Amino acid sequence: MKTTHPTKARIVQRALKIASARGMQGVTIGAVAQAAKVSKSGLFSHFKSKQSMQIEILDAARDLFGANVLAQANTAPEGIARLRAMFEGWLGWARKNGLPGACPFVVAASEVSNLPAPVRRHLIDVQDRWLESLAGQVGVAVRLGELARTVVPRQFTFQLLGIYLAHHWHSLLKTDPDVNARAMAAFEDLIRSGSLRRAAA
């Protein structure tokens, strides 16, 4: 079993909060050392490079997401019920779980061209796995007969991502006080569309 030095774990958690608020470009050695109350040399004793720290930030975000979104969603029955729980937990997950800014994955994606190639690949891998999990539940809903056989899981998931990003945008800009309700209404419309196609078949 992998163990993490408590000081290193604390550094990563502080760095994750910075990444949420300022993006990966804001995760400087000085900023992280100050936030974690360690010296720069002490910080380097736990990480080989800034790049390795960025990868561990993504892993910490993935673990936080898994423990607080996926774990809860997995208690729901498979199919539409679990897909709904996954989507609802996804909305605003960063703030709901103690991060001060935006979703670290969305922020990192917005600056992906400035990230080192290994960090970029890791970000894509982490997000692909999440989207595959969503698509998997869409596929289960199709097999259970909850959605039409004509529903394409990858296309359905593409549309879910669009709703999530619209929710994220409005949440950051505070342009719509009903953003949560609108996002869930859009989700239910998508489910209804897939169910109507089933009924018409």
Model description:
The protein is elongated and about 60 Å long. The protein is built from ten helices and no strands. It has one domain (49-200): Tetracycline Repressor, domain 2 (Orthogonal Bundle). It is mainly α and 201 residues long. The termini are far apart. α4 (50-73) crosses α5 and α5 (80-90) packs antiparallel against α8.
Write the layout of secondary structure elements.
Elements: H1 6-22, H2 29-36, H3 40-44, H4 50-73, H5 80-90, H6 93-96, H7 104-110, H8 117-143, H9 153-173, H10 179-200
What distinguishing features does this structure have?
0% strand, 201 residues, 10 helices, Tetracycline Repressor, domain 2
